[in-house]
């Protein structure tokens, strides 16, 4: 899936379009050794067999809104030049710590954001370094070095 969203990046005179793509990891999970799943439960991606996950699938329905609201979300370093955003409120009012992992790059003048994975965290988020979404966008647009994780 591809989404193209215009953002008004601070200190940039015009709206900038960001292109978002989503991996099948947002609605699948890794296979467990002891699992014996039928073929219909396995997502048919040749080089990366994964199990379809109903919970991840239901949560992934929030991703379009999460992507549109990324500037307002708490973003942090996920390691390996990845950024994360989390916490969503479900329709019933319960809050879920939902880790959305994405990487960014510029290709042929386009700002690309690829959501590599998204899943509910089973435990509290530890100490992380906050990253301003606008700094990521501005630096990417200007060809500057992207924010790095704390060492």
Distance between the termini: 34 Å
Whole-number total of structural domains: 1
Strand neighbour order, sheet with most strands:
1-2-11-10-7-6
Number of helices: 3
What spatial form do the alpha-carbon principal axes imply?
Answer: globular
Helical coverage, percent range: 10-25%
Structural write-up:
The chain has a six-stranded mixed sheet with strand order 1-2-11-10-7-6. A three-stranded antiparallel sheet has the order 3-5-4, covered by helices on one side. The protein has a two-stranded antiparallel sheet with strand order 8-9. The protein has helices at residues 54-60, 63-68, 133-142; strands at 2-7, 16-22, 28-29, 42-43, 50-52, 75-79, 82-85, 88-89, 95-96, 98-107, 110-120. Helices cover 15% and strands 36% of the residues. A hairpin with a 5-residue loop joins β8 and β9 (95-96). It has 151 residues and is α+β, with helices and mostly antiparallel strands. The chain has one domain (2-7, 15-142). This is Heat-shock protein.
Give a quick precis of the structure.
With 151 residues, the chain is α+β, with helices and mostly antiparallel strands. The protein has helices spanning 54-60, 63-68, 133-142; strands at 2-7, 16-22, 28-29, 42-43, 50-52, 75-79, 82-85, 88-89, 95-96, 98-107, 110-120. Strand 1 and strand 2 form a beta hairpin.
SSE order and pairing:
Elements lengths: L1 E6 L8 E7 L5 E2 L12 E2 L6 E3 L1 H7 L2 H6 L6 E5 L2 E4 L2 E2 L5 E2 L1 E10 L2 E11 L12 H10 L9
Parallel strand pairs: 2-11
Antiparallel strand pairs: 1-2, 3-5, 4-5, 6-7, 7-10, 8-9, 10-11
Protein name: Heat-shock protein
């Amino acid at each position: 899936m591809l989404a193209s969203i215009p953002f008004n990046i601070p200190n940039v005179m015009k709206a900038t379009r960001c292109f978002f793509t989503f991996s099948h990891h947002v609605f699948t999970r890794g296979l467990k050794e002891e699992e014996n799943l039928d073929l219909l439960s396995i997502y048919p991606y040749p080089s990366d067999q994964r199990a379809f996950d109903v919970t991840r699938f239901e949560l992934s329905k929030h991703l379009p809104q999460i992507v549109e609201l990324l500037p307002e979300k708490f973003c942090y370093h996920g390691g390996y030049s990845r950024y994360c955003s989390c916490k969503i409120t479900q329709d019933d009012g319960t809050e879920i710590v939902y880790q959305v992992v994405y990487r960014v790059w510029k290709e042929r003048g386009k700002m690309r954001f690829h959501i590599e994975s998204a899943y509910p965290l089973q435990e509290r988020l530890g100490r992380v370094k906050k990253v301003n979404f606008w700094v990521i966008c501005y630096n990417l647009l200007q060809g500057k070095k992207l924010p790095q994780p704390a060492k």
